[in-house]
Amino acid sequence: MILDPLKGHAVTMWNPGPDGYQGRDTIPYGPDLTVGLPLGKLTIATGRLPVDPKARPTG
Asked: Which pTM value belongs to this model?
């Protein structure tokens, strides 16, 4: 997972293979993002992450 403060979104990559990841999802910051891990679930409040002011359109 990549949290990108310059673009205001998270990128998750899945299904790794010999030629790289076969899939990716881009999720805009705002809603909570929950990731399942071997030790349990991790929830990230993306709406509270810092974002470059130029990354989001105003008004």
From this structure: 0.73
